[in-house]
Protein backbone atom coordinates (compact mmCIF):
# COMPACT_ATOMS: atom_id res chain seq x y z
CA UNK A 1 0.00 0.00 0.00
CA UNK A 2 1.19 3.51 -0.77
CA UNK A 3 0.76 6.45 1.59
CA UNK A 4 1.76 8.96 -1.08
CA UNK A 5 0.18 7.49 -4.23
CA UNK A 6 0.22 10.80 -6.09
CA UNK A 7 3.89 11.48 -5.54
CA UNK A 8 6.55 9.65 -7.49
CA UNK A 9 10.31 9.49 -6.97
CA UNK A 10 11.69 13.02 -6.40
CA UNK A 11 14.27 13.79 -9.06
CA UNK A 12 16.71 16.57 -9.80
CA UNK A 13 15.20 18.87 -12.43
CA UNK A 14 17.31 22.01 -12.07
CA UNK A 15 16.36 25.43 -10.81
CA UNK A 16 14.08 26.35 -13.70
CA UNK A 17 11.54 23.62 -12.97
CA UNK A 18 8.00 24.45 -11.87
CA UNK A 19 7.54 21.03 -10.32
CA UNK A 20 7.32 21.40 -6.53
CA UNK A 21 8.15 17.71 -6.12
CA UNK A 22 11.60 18.00 -7.67
CA UNK A 23 15.05 19.03 -6.50
CA UNK A 24 16.30 22.32 -7.84
CA UNK A 25 19.83 22.05 -6.45
CA UNK A 26 20.31 18.62 -4.90
CA UNK A 27 21.65 16.40 -7.64
CA UNK A 28 22.77 13.26 -5.81
CA UNK A 29 25.29 12.06 -8.41
CA UNK A 30 26.79 15.48 -9.23
CA UNK A 31 30.45 15.61 -8.27
CA UNK A 32 31.61 18.49 -6.07
CA UNK A 33 35.26 18.66 -5.01
CA UNK A 34 35.83 15.03 -6.00
CA UNK A 35 32.83 13.46 -4.25
CA UNK A 36 29.18 13.11 -5.18
CA UNK A 37 26.68 15.34 -3.40
CA UNK A 38 25.15 12.21 -1.89
CA UNK A 39 28.48 11.22 -0.35
CA UNK A 40 29.11 14.71 1.00
CA UNK A 41 25.67 15.21 2.50
CA UNK A 42 24.66 11.81 3.92
CA UNK A 43 21.10 13.02 4.60
CA UNK A 44 18.93 11.36 7.22
CA UNK A 45 15.23 11.69 8.08
CA UNK A 46 14.22 11.87 11.75
CA UNK A 47 11.44 9.49 12.76
CA UNK A 48 10.15 11.69 15.57
CA UNK A 49 9.43 14.83 13.56
CA UNK A 50 8.29 13.09 10.43
CA UNK A 51 6.27 10.18 11.79
CA UNK A 52 5.16 10.93 15.35
CA UNK A 53 4.94 14.70 15.71
CA UNK A 54 1.27 15.70 15.70
CA UNK A 55 1.52 19.47 15.18
CA UNK A 56 0.19 20.37 18.63
CA UNK A 57 1.69 23.27 20.56
CA UNK A 58 1.18 24.47 24.15
CA UNK A 59 -1.95 26.31 23.03
CA UNK A 60 -3.28 24.10 20.27
CA UNK A 61 -4.56 20.59 19.58
CA UNK A 62 -2.97 18.15 17.12
CA UNK A 63 -3.46 19.25 13.50
CA UNK A 64 -1.44 16.88 11.35
CA UNK A 65 -3.47 14.77 8.95
CA UNK A 66 -1.87 11.31 8.74
CA UNK A 67 -3.29 8.26 7.02
CA UNK A 68 -1.14 5.81 8.94
CA UNK A 69 -3.20 5.90 12.13
CA UNK A 70 -4.41 2.38 12.89
CA UNK A 71 -6.84 0.81 15.35
CA UNK A 72 -4.24 0.15 18.05
CA UNK A 73 -0.92 1.85 18.88
CA UNK A 74 0.90 -1.20 17.46
CA UNK A 75 -1.11 -1.01 14.21
CA UNK A 76 -0.09 2.62 13.90
CA UNK A 77 3.53 1.70 14.64
CA UNK A 78 3.51 -0.97 11.89
CA UNK A 79 1.92 1.38 9.37
CA UNK A 80 4.48 4.04 10.17
CA UNK A 81 7.36 1.78 9.15
CA UNK A 82 5.74 1.29 5.75
CA UNK A 83 5.07 5.02 5.31
CA UNK A 84 8.52 6.02 6.61
CA UNK A 85 10.38 3.87 4.09
CA UNK A 86 8.17 5.20 1.32
CA UNK A 87 9.20 8.74 2.31
CA UNK A 88 12.90 7.81 2.46
CA UNK A 89 12.75 6.02 -0.87
CA UNK A 90 10.84 8.79 -2.63
CA UNK A 91 13.27 11.41 -1.33
CA UNK A 92 16.28 9.24 -2.16
CA UNK A 93 17.53 9.64 1.42
CA UNK A 94 19.75 6.76 2.51
CA UNK A 95 19.80 7.20 6.31
CA UNK A 96 17.40 7.60 9.19
CA UNK A 97 17.41 8.23 12.95
CA UNK A 98 14.99 7.41 15.76
CA UNK A 99 14.33 7.30 19.50
CA UNK A 100 13.07 4.00 20.92
CA UNK A 101 9.68 5.53 21.79
CA UNK A 102 9.21 6.94 18.27
CA UNK A 103 9.01 3.54 16.65
CA UNK A 104 7.05 1.47 19.19
CA UNK A 105 4.58 2.13 22.03
CA UNK A 106 5.91 1.72 25.57
CA UNK A 107 2.94 -0.39 26.67
CA UNK A 108 2.46 -1.14 30.35
CA UNK A 109 5.85 -2.56 31.27
CA UNK A 110 9.47 -2.67 30.20
CA UNK A 111 8.92 -6.25 29.00
CA UNK A 112 6.05 -5.15 26.75
CA UNK A 113 8.05 -2.19 25.46
CA UNK A 114 10.99 -4.44 24.55
CA UNK A 115 8.66 -6.91 22.82
CA UNK A 116 7.09 -4.09 20.81
CA UNK A 117 10.56 -2.85 19.90
CA UNK A 118 11.58 -6.35 18.76
CA UNK A 119 8.56 -6.64 16.49
CA UNK A 120 8.93 -3.19 14.94
CA UNK A 121 12.70 -3.44 14.50
CA UNK A 122 12.12 -6.75 12.66
CA UNK A 123 9.90 -4.84 10.23
CA UNK A 124 12.45 -2.04 9.96
CA UNK A 125 15.22 -4.54 9.27
CA UNK A 126 13.19 -6.13 6.46
CA UNK A 127 12.70 -2.70 4.90
CA UNK A 128 16.39 -1.87 5.29
CA UNK A 129 17.40 -5.10 3.57
CA UNK A 130 14.91 -4.48 0.77
CA UNK A 131 15.93 -0.85 0.11
CA UNK A 132 19.58 -0.59 1.21
CA UNK A 133 18.64 2.31 3.52
CA UNK A 134 20.87 2.51 6.63
CA UNK A 135 20.57 3.55 10.26
CA UNK A 136 22.59 6.72 10.94
CA UNK A 137 21.79 6.62 14.65
CA UNK A 138 19.27 5.63 17.24
CA UNK A 139 18.88 6.83 20.80
CA UNK A 140 16.81 6.23 23.92
CA UNK A 141 14.18 8.76 24.89
CA UNK A 142 15.01 9.32 28.57
CA UNK A 143 13.18 12.62 28.97
CA UNK A 144 9.46 12.31 28.11
CA UNK A 145 8.17 9.86 30.73
CA UNK A 146 7.41 11.36 34.19
CA UNK A 147 9.97 9.01 35.80
CA UNK A 148 12.63 11.18 34.13
CA UNK A 149 11.42 14.42 35.71
CA UNK A 150 14.68 14.80 37.63
CA UNK A 151 16.87 13.41 34.88
CA UNK A 152 17.88 9.92 33.76
CA UNK A 153 21.51 9.11 34.66
CA UNK A 154 21.54 12.35 36.65
CA UNK A 155 18.37 11.55 38.60
CA UNK A 156 18.52 11.63 42.39
CA UNK A 157 16.70 8.26 42.30
CA UNK A 158 18.93 5.23 41.57
CA UNK A 159 15.97 3.16 40.27
CA UNK A 160 15.60 5.74 37.51
CA UNK A 161 19.30 5.32 36.67
CA UNK A 162 18.71 1.57 36.38
CA UNK A 163 15.66 2.08 34.12
CA UNK A 164 17.68 4.39 31.88
CA UNK A 165 20.48 1.79 31.76
CA UNK A 166 17.95 -0.82 30.59
CA UNK A 167 16.80 1.49 27.79
CA UNK A 168 20.39 2.16 26.71
CA UNK A 169 21.19 -1.58 26.70
CA UNK A 170 18.17 -2.22 24.49
CA UNK A 171 19.17 0.75 22.31
CA UNK A 172 22.59 -0.80 21.74
CA UNK A 173 21.08 -4.22 21.02
CA UNK A 174 18.88 -2.55 18.41
CA UNK A 175 21.87 -0.63 17.04
CA UNK A 176 23.69 -3.93 16.58
CA UNK A 177 20.67 -5.60 14.99
CA UNK A 178 20.23 -2.74 12.50
CA UNK A 179 23.93 -1.96 11.96
CA UNK A 180 23.69 1.57 13.40
CA UNK A 181 26.71 3.66 12.47
CA UNK A 182 26.39 6.03 15.46
CA UNK A 183 24.55 6.07 18.78
CA UNK A 184 23.37 9.36 20.31
CA UNK A 185 22.92 10.59 23.86
CA UNK A 186 20.94 13.79 24.21
CA UNK A 187 20.44 14.65 27.87
CA UNK A 188 17.27 16.71 27.71
CA UNK A 189 16.70 16.37 31.44
CA UNK A 190 20.32 15.84 32.47
CA UNK A 191 20.55 19.18 34.21
CA UNK A 192 18.99 20.90 37.17
CA UNK A 193 16.27 23.23 38.29
CA UNK A 194 17.84 24.54 41.49
CA UNK A 195 21.29 24.16 43.03
CA UNK A 196 19.61 24.32 46.47
CA UNK A 197 18.79 20.62 46.27
CA UNK A 198 21.29 19.42 43.63
CA UNK A 199 24.56 17.52 43.95
CA UNK A 200 25.99 18.56 40.61
CA UNK A 201 29.25 16.61 41.04
CA UNK A 202 27.47 13.30 41.76
CA UNK A 203 25.01 13.87 38.90
CA UNK A 204 27.80 14.44 36.38
CA UNK A 205 29.84 11.50 37.71
CA UNK A 206 26.75 9.33 37.24
CA UNK A 207 26.20 10.47 33.65
CA UNK A 208 29.82 9.48 32.94
CA UNK A 209 29.19 6.13 34.67
CA UNK A 210 26.30 5.40 32.30
CA UNK A 211 28.44 6.35 29.29
CA UNK A 212 31.22 4.01 30.44
CA UNK A 213 28.68 1.21 30.86
CA UNK A 214 27.58 1.85 27.26
CA UNK A 215 31.17 1.61 25.99
CA UNK A 216 31.70 -1.61 27.97
CA UNK A 217 28.46 -3.16 26.72
CA UNK A 218 29.27 -2.22 23.11
CA UNK A 219 32.60 -3.99 23.48
CA UNK A 220 30.92 -7.01 25.05
CA UNK A 221 28.42 -7.49 22.22
CA UNK A 222 31.03 -6.69 19.57
CA UNK A 223 29.23 -3.65 18.19
CA UNK A 224 30.87 -0.28 18.39
CA UNK A 225 28.89 2.57 16.86
CA UNK A 226 30.45 6.03 17.10
CA UNK A 227 29.05 7.36 20.39
CA UNK A 228 27.83 10.95 20.18
CA UNK A 229 26.71 13.48 22.78
CA UNK A 230 24.31 16.16 21.57
CA UNK A 231 24.75 19.46 23.44
CA UNK A 232 21.89 21.83 24.17
CA UNK A 233 21.93 24.62 26.77
CA UNK A 234 18.34 24.42 27.98
CA UNK A 235 14.83 23.14 27.20
CA UNK A 236 13.35 21.11 28.69
CA UNK A 237 15.80 21.55 31.61
CA UNK A 238 16.45 25.05 32.86
CA UNK A 239 20.16 24.30 32.75
CA UNK A 240 21.49 21.33 30.79
CA UNK A 241 24.92 19.93 31.67
CA UNK A 242 25.94 19.46 28.01
CA UNK A 243 25.48 23.19 27.45
CA UNK A 244 27.47 23.57 24.22
CA UNK A 245 30.37 22.00 22.33
CA UNK A 246 33.10 23.44 24.58
CA UNK A 247 31.34 22.44 27.82
CA UNK A 248 30.67 18.96 26.49
CA UNK A 249 34.30 18.53 25.41
CA UNK A 250 35.40 19.48 28.94
CA UNK A 251 33.07 16.74 30.25
CA UNK A 252 34.36 14.21 27.71
CA UNK A 253 37.97 14.97 28.62
CA UNK A 254 37.39 15.08 32.39
CA UNK A 255 35.99 11.56 32.34
CA UNK A 256 38.48 10.17 29.82
CA UNK A 257 35.83 9.51 27.20
CA UNK A 258 37.80 10.98 24.28
CA UNK A 259 38.30 8.46 21.54
CA UNK A 260 34.93 6.85 22.26
CA UNK A 261 32.73 9.94 22.17
CA UNK A 262 32.28 12.74 19.64
CA UNK A 263 29.60 15.40 19.25
CA UNK A 264 26.30 15.52 17.43
CA UNK A 265 25.75 19.24 16.93
CA UNK A 266 22.42 20.85 16.17
CA UNK A 267 21.96 24.26 14.56
CA UNK A 268 19.09 25.44 16.74
CA UNK A 269 20.86 24.24 19.90
CA UNK A 270 23.84 26.39 18.94
CA UNK A 271 21.74 29.52 18.63
CA UNK A 272 19.99 28.76 21.95
CA UNK A 273 23.46 28.69 23.53
CA UNK A 274 24.20 32.10 22.04
CA UNK A 275 26.53 30.76 19.35
CA UNK A 276 26.41 30.50 15.60
CA UNK A 277 26.28 26.92 14.32
CA UNK A 278 29.64 27.35 12.60
CA UNK A 279 31.15 28.35 15.95
CA UNK A 280 30.03 25.04 17.44
CA UNK A 281 31.29 23.07 14.43
CA UNK A 282 34.61 24.85 14.57
CA UNK A 283 35.05 24.13 18.29
CA UNK A 284 34.26 20.44 17.71
CA UNK A 285 36.62 20.29 14.76
CA UNK A 286 39.46 21.72 16.82
CA UNK A 287 38.98 18.83 19.26
CA UNK A 288 38.72 16.34 16.35
CA UNK A 289 35.28 15.56 17.71
CA UNK A 290 32.87 16.65 14.98
CA UNK A 291 30.71 13.53 14.73
CA UNK A 292 27.41 14.33 13.06
CA UNK A 293 24.91 17.16 12.71
CA UNK A 294 21.23 17.76 13.33
CA UNK A 295 20.18 20.11 10.57
CA UNK A 296 17.50 22.68 11.27
CA UNK A 297 17.24 26.39 11.97
CA UNK A 298 15.85 28.46 14.82
CA UNK A 299 14.11 31.78 14.83
CA UNK A 300 16.09 34.46 16.62
CA UNK A 301 12.87 36.29 17.46
CA UNK A 302 11.70 33.28 19.46
CA UNK A 303 13.62 32.01 22.47
CA UNK A 304 12.91 28.30 22.03
CA UNK A 305 13.85 25.35 19.87
CA UNK A 306 11.66 25.87 16.80
CA UNK A 307 13.37 23.10 14.78
CA UNK A 308 12.52 24.64 11.41
CA UNK A 309 13.66 23.06 8.18
CA UNK A 310 16.85 24.81 7.05
CA UNK A 311 16.25 27.37 4.30
CA UNK A 312 18.94 29.94 5.07
CA UNK A 313 21.67 29.54 2.44
CA UNK A 314 24.20 31.62 4.34
CA UNK A 315 23.91 29.27 7.33
CA UNK A 316 24.21 26.10 5.27
CA UNK A 317 27.19 27.56 3.39
CA UNK A 318 29.16 28.07 6.59
CA UNK A 319 28.01 24.71 7.91
CA UNK A 320 29.19 22.94 4.78
CA UNK A 321 32.41 24.97 4.84
CA UNK A 322 33.17 23.55 8.30
CA UNK A 323 32.26 20.06 7.14
CA UNK A 324 34.59 20.39 4.13
CA UNK A 325 37.35 21.65 6.41
CA UNK A 326 36.69 18.60 8.58
CA UNK A 327 37.34 16.33 5.61
CA UNK A 328 33.67 15.27 5.58
CA UNK A 329 31.13 14.17 8.16
CA UNK A 330 31.17 10.33 7.82
CA UNK A 331 30.37 8.13 9.69
CA UNK A 332 28.03 10.93 10.81
CA UNK A 333 25.54 12.60 8.53
CA UNK A 334 23.11 15.45 8.13
CA UNK A 335 19.97 14.52 10.02
CA UNK A 336 16.92 16.71 9.54
CA UNK A 337 15.95 17.24 13.16
CA UNK A 338 13.27 19.54 11.80
CA UNK A 339 9.51 19.70 11.82
CA UNK A 340 6.96 21.19 9.51
CA UNK A 341 5.23 24.34 10.76
CA UNK A 342 1.83 23.87 12.43
CA UNK A 343 0.19 25.40 9.39
CA UNK A 344 1.88 22.86 7.07
CA UNK A 345 -0.34 20.02 8.21
CA UNK A 346 -0.81 18.02 5.03
CA UNK A 347 0.98 14.75 4.32
CA UNK A 348 2.72 16.16 1.24
CA UNK A 349 4.32 18.88 3.40
CA UNK A 350 6.58 16.20 4.87
CA UNK A 351 8.14 15.67 1.46
CA UNK A 352 8.10 19.33 0.45
CA UNK A 353 9.86 20.35 3.66
CA UNK A 354 12.63 17.80 3.17
CA UNK A 355 13.05 18.88 -0.45
CA UNK A 356 13.50 22.48 0.76
CA UNK A 357 16.05 21.41 3.37
CA UNK A 358 17.98 19.17 0.97
CA UNK A 359 18.09 21.87 -1.71
CA UNK A 360 19.30 24.43 0.84
CA UNK A 361 22.10 22.11 1.95
CA UNK A 362 23.02 21.37 -1.67
CA UNK A 363 23.30 25.11 -2.33
CA UNK A 364 25.37 25.47 0.84
CA UNK A 365 27.68 22.68 -0.34
CA UNK A 366 28.16 24.28 -3.76
CA UNK A 367 28.81 27.70 -2.25
CA UNK A 368 31.24 26.30 0.32
CA UNK A 369 33.05 24.41 -2.45
CA UNK A 370 33.39 27.70 -4.33
CA UNK A 371 34.89 29.30 -1.23
CA UNK A 372 37.40 26.46 -1.02
CA UNK A 373 38.21 26.48 -4.74
CA UNK A 374 38.82 30.22 -4.89
CA UNK A 375 40.77 30.01 -1.62
CA UNK A 376 39.14 33.30 -0.70
CA UNK A 377 38.98 32.65 3.04
CA UNK A 378 42.20 30.59 3.11
CA UNK A 379 44.20 33.43 1.59
CA UNK A 380 42.54 35.98 3.82
CA UNK A 381 43.42 34.06 6.96
CA UNK A 382 46.90 33.20 5.82
CA UNK A 383 47.59 36.88 5.29
CA UNK A 384 46.00 37.89 8.60
CA UNK A 385 48.24 35.56 10.62
CA UNK A 386 51.36 36.04 8.51
CA UNK A 387 53.26 37.50 11.48
CA UNK A 388 53.47 33.98 12.95
CA UNK A 389 55.23 32.53 9.93
CA UNK A 390 58.49 34.44 10.31
CA UNK A 391 60.61 36.33 12.82
CA UNK A 392 59.42 36.58 16.41
CA UNK A 393 56.00 35.07 15.59
CA UNK A 394 57.58 31.93 14.17
CA UNK A 395 59.87 31.69 17.20
CA UNK A 396 56.79 31.92 19.53
CA UNK A 397 55.06 29.16 17.63
CA UNK A 398 58.23 27.02 17.65
CA UNK A 399 58.55 27.44 21.43
CA UNK A 400 61.83 29.31 21.18
CA UNK A 401 60.81 32.41 23.13
CA UNK A 402 60.07 33.11 26.81
CA UNK A 403 58.84 36.07 28.85
CA UNK A 404 62.34 37.52 29.23
CA UNK A 405 63.33 37.23 25.58
CA UNK A 406 59.96 38.68 24.52
CA UNK A 407 60.33 41.57 26.96
CA UNK A 408 63.65 42.42 25.36
CA UNK A 409 62.00 42.16 21.92
CA UNK A 410 59.01 44.32 22.95
CA UNK A 411 61.38 47.04 24.25
CA UNK A 412 62.79 47.34 20.73
CA UNK A 413 59.42 47.06 18.93
CA UNK A 414 56.95 49.33 20.69
CA UNK A 415 55.62 51.14 17.68
CA UNK A 416 52.84 48.69 16.79
CA UNK A 417 50.45 49.44 13.94
CA UNK A 418 47.60 47.03 13.20
CA UNK A 419 46.38 46.62 9.65
CA UNK A 420 42.69 47.19 8.94
CA UNK A 421 40.67 43.99 8.67
CA UNK A 422 38.38 45.54 6.04
CA UNK A 423 35.63 43.23 7.28
CA UNK A 424 32.95 45.11 5.32
CA UNK A 425 34.84 44.42 2.11
CA UNK A 426 35.25 40.77 3.10
CA UNK A 427 31.51 40.35 3.61
CA UNK A 428 30.64 42.17 0.44
CA UNK A 429 33.11 40.05 -1.59
CA UNK A 430 31.49 37.00 -0.07
CA UNK A 431 28.14 38.16 -1.46
CA UNK A 432 29.77 38.52 -4.88
CA UNK A 433 31.10 34.99 -4.68
CA UNK A 434 27.84 33.45 -3.50
CA UNK A 435 25.26 35.23 -5.64
C1 LIG B 1 15.91 17.86 21.11
C2 LIG B 1 16.71 17.09 20.14
C3 LIG B 1 16.56 15.60 20.18
C4 LIG B 1 17.82 14.87 19.89
C5 LIG B 1 17.72 13.39 20.07
O1 LIG B 1 16.08 19.21 21.04
O2 LIG B 1 17.43 17.65 19.35
O3 LIG B 1 15.55 15.25 19.29
O4 LIG B 1 18.27 15.12 18.60
O5 LIG B 1 17.23 13.03 21.29
CO1 LIG C 1 18.65 17.00 17.79
TrEMBL record:
Its cofactor is Mg(2+). PROSITE patterns: XYLOSE_ISOMERASE. This is Xylose isomerase. GO terms for cellular component: cytoplasm. The lineage of its organism: Bacteria, Bacillati, Bacillota, Bacilli, Lactobacillales. Residues 107-280 form the Xylose isomerase-like TIM barrel domain. It is an enzyme of class 5 (isomerase). Mg(2+) 2 binds at residues 266, 269, 305, 307. InterPro entries: Xyl_isomerase-like_sf, Xyl_isomerase-like_TIM-brl, Xylose_isom_bac, Xylose_isomerase. Mg(2+) 1 binds at residues 230, 266, 294, 337.
